[in-house]
Amino acid sequence: MTFLVSALFHYLGPAFAVLLFARVDALGVAWLRIVSAAVLLALWRRPWAALRRPLVLVWGALLALMNCCFYLAIDRLHLATVAAIEFLPVVVLAALGARTPRNAAAVLLAVPGVYLLTGVHVEHDALGVALAFANAALFAGYVVLAHRAARDPALSGLDGLAAAMLVAAVVVTPLAGWAAVPAFGDPVALLAGIGVGVASSVVPYVADQLAMARLTRAAYALLVALLPATATVVGLVVLAQIPSAADAAGLALVIAGVALRREAPAASRPRPAARPSPPPRPSPAATPTPASSGSRGRR
Q1: Which of 49, 51, 82, 210 would staple 2 via disulfide (CB 3.0–4.6 Å)?
Q2: In total, how many domains does the chain have?
Q3: How far is Cα 277 from Cα 291, in angstroms, rounded to an integer?
Q4: Residue 96 within a domain
Q5: What are phi and psi of 214, to 5 degrees?
Q6: What is the pLDDT averaged over residues 136-144?
Q7: Cβ contact 251:229 at 8 Å
């Protein structure tokens, strides 16, 4: 359920970003998204102690670079193309966890389904393609680090996320802060930027942490295949965009792949041998006292 929430809001964010691209540069949108999300999460969680963790520092830097590459890529390429490229390394993560024939078959079903849904076609823009692949590699790193944070018993996943977003805000400011300057004179752009931060970072990243706390990394990676399928359903319900036959086939393959996959049963741990119980101690009433022994001897 939490992942479905993440998938739904994943596509509300780009809807807000479309409004911003006409007013603010792509890097400026990335800055507004990260900083607004960082402020909201910090006010909610107050994650100051988590800032000392090396995992959080690396995660935050990765989030900053990933968002910059994503917005620069969709500024040059179609969103469907960037989404399809983004899914490729995630498939590798899912395949690494597919250690049974059933799970391998699930991956083999999901991959062509995503291809049919996204309609992959690489435009003649070498820089855009390079940015899309950089975003894909960083997204795979996000899955690994976010999953590790969600499973770290010494670090609350949500506190780690809030701290990582603060680190991302620091890292992204010298890279993209200058591009967001025009938004400060435009209240609509600022409100849209906050909307992008909430819809694209706060809600889906929080949902990711809740889902990752219960799912293996491979299971989450395969569920990412639901993102294009969710986009098709949202387009049908909200925008009355009837999917083509290829879209319907891709949707069916993705759903079949996600439904086919099963979590591996937890390895049975040998139980420690039961300690032999000590012999029962005789009760005081059953232990003869010296006086009673002597009386018995005199009788």
Answers
A1: 210
A2: 1
A3: 32
A4: yes
A5: -115, -15
A6: 90
A7: yes
Instruction: Report if residue 208 sits inside a domain.
Output: yes
In a domain, 120, yes or no: yes
Q: What is the DSSP string of the chain?
A: -HHHHHHHHHHHHHHHHHHHHTTS-HHHHHHHHHHHHHHHHHHHH--TGGGG-HHHHHHHHHHHHHHHHHHHHHTTS-HHHHHHHHHHHHHHHHHHH--SHHHHHHHHHHHHHHHHHHT----S-HHHHHHHHHHHHHHHHHHHHHHHHHH-TTS-HHHHHHHHHHHHHHHHHHHHGGGGGGGGG-HHHHHHHHHHHIIIIIHHHHHHHHHHTTS-HHHHHHHTTHHHHHHHHHHHHHH-----HHHHHHHHHHHHHHHH--PPPPPPPPPPPPPPPPPPPPPTTTSPPHHHHHHHHH-
Please give the residue range of the domain that contains residue 226.
Answer: 2-260
Question: What's residue 184's pLDDT?
Answer: 92
Q: How is residue 197 written in tokens? A: 């931060």
Query: 0.85 exceeded by the pTM?
Result: no
Q: What is the rounded average pLDDT of the residues 176-185? A: 93
Tokens of 177: 């802060």
Of residues 62, 65, 66, 67, the one with CA closest to residue 33: 67
Give residue-wise pLDDT tens across range 276-286: 445 555 555 44
